[in-house]
Each structure stands twice: as C-alpha cells, then as structure tokens.
Amino acid sequence: MDANELIRRYTAGERDFTAVNLAGAKLIGAYLVGINLYAADLSGANLAKAKLWGSNLGGTNLAKANLTRANLSCANLIEANVRGAKLHYTKLFGANLTGACYDDSTRFSYGFDPQSRNMRKI
C-alpha cells in the first residue's frame, strides 16, 4: 500500500490498517485521526504535521520517521519503536508511550523526559 491509497481508503471511512507496510511513505500534514496502525511499518516515513490524535500506533515501527509538529495527543504508542525518529514539537499530551523504545539518535522536543513517560532506552 502507498500513501495515496491509505488516504483514499481513510477518506472513504476505513480506519483499520493493522500491520500495513508504509515504510518511507510521505504523509506530510495527513489527517488520520483515530486510525488504527497497530504493528504497522512506518519506518522512515514523513509524518510531519500529521494529525493522528486518538490513533492506535501500538507496536508500530516508527524508526527514523519524521514526526515533527505531528499531533499524537491521546494516541496509543505502547511498545512502538521510535529509535532515530524526529519528535521535535510533537504533541504527545495524553499519549501512552509505555514501553516505546528510543535511542540516543531519537530527537525529542526540548525538556521532554522519555523516562517519565515509561519509555525504554535501547
């Protein structure tokens, strides 16, 4: 599946995209509120300014993804992989990040403390 197909199907009302492969997809500014991307591969995807509040991103591979200025408020990111991801100015209010893994190359907004959000460093 590519980004255009995802947006077309989402616009048509589909919300469950469990385990879909969208590695490297360009979804800049995409409106995907409440989408289920559980266990999806979004590694290297560009999700800058995407609207993903209330979404299920549990177990999703977001390694090296660009989530700059994305809205992930109240999203489920349990056990997600955000190693090497860019999370500058990303809205994470109420997001569940329990067990999400990050590394030294993950870029968070200034002052964000991943340990206080129960994330694990790998």
Tell me the strand order in the biggest sheet: 1-3
Tally of helical runs = 1
First CA to last CA: what distance?
30 Å
As a whole number of angstroms, the C-alpha radius of gyration is 13 Å
What do you see in this structure?
This protein has 122 residues and is mostly loops. It has a single domain, classed as E3 ubiquitin-protein ligase SopA (Pectate Lyase C-like), CATH 2.160.20.80. 7% of the residues lie in helices and 7% in strands. The chain contains one helix and four strands. It is globular, with a radius of gyration of 13 Å. 42% of the residues are buried. The model has no long low-confidence stretch (mean pLDDT 98).
How would the blueprint of this fold be written?
Blueprint: H1 3-11, E1 86-87, E2 101-102, E3 107-108, E4 120-121
Parallel strand pairs: 1-3, 2-4
Keywords:
122 residues; little secondary structure; Pectate Lyase C-like; two-stranded parallel sheet
Short description:
The protein is largely without helices or strands and 122 residues long. The chain has a single domain, classed as E3 ubiquitin-protein ligase SopA (Pectate Lyase C-like, 3 Solenoid), CATH 2.160.20.
